[in-house]
Design brief:
alpha+beta; five-stranded antiparallel β-sheet; 3 helices
């Protein structure tokens, strides 16, 4: 009972778009290097091939956010996940669907806590972070300004 990127989430199915990229992450865990590369490659392509204004800092921020979201999904969701990147106006929308319907909890900042800072990092770097219920799980959405903070 696998899911493709097209059938996860809002049910809206589109053809491939140069302003969107997605990656199905398997249960065994796709390497974090792969999701970081996808983010960098996607943003470089939309900047170079499509003239979208993307600053270098946004590429680095996107790589960190996708790493944190995928790490959280691996740790707390029992099944596959789908990462989707999409340009929406002046922002990058990073969506991660996973099979755990429980929304992540933002913990109070605590510099003495070891670990469990992923969502805290994502919230600090993104313009906004939301969680939506999705078929067979949830979707965490982080929006990042393309032109910097």
């Amino acid at each position: 009972m696998g899911h493709s990127p097209e059938d996860i989430g809002d049910g809206h199915v589109e053809g491939p778009s140069p302003m969107e990229a997605s990656l199905a992450l398997d249960v065994d865990g796709s390497p974090l290097a792969q999701v970081r590369h996808l983010a960098a490659s996607f943003l470089t392509t939309v900047r170079d091939a499509h003239g979208v204004a993307v600053v270098d800092a946004t590429v680095e921020i996107a790589q960190l956010i996708v790493s944190e979201l995928v790490t959280n999904a691996r740790k707390y969701a029992p099944g596959p996940a789908v990462l989707r990147l999409r340009i929406t106006g002046d922002a990058l929308r990073i969506e991660l669907w996973d099979s755990n319907p429980v929304p992540p909890a933002v913990r109070a900042p605590d510099p003495r806590r070891i670990g469990q800072h992923g969502l805290e990092i994502v919230t600090a770097l993104a313009r906004d972070v939301t969680t939506e219920t999705a078929p067979a799980g949830k979707r965490v959405i982080a929006t990042v300004a393309l032109g910097g903070a």
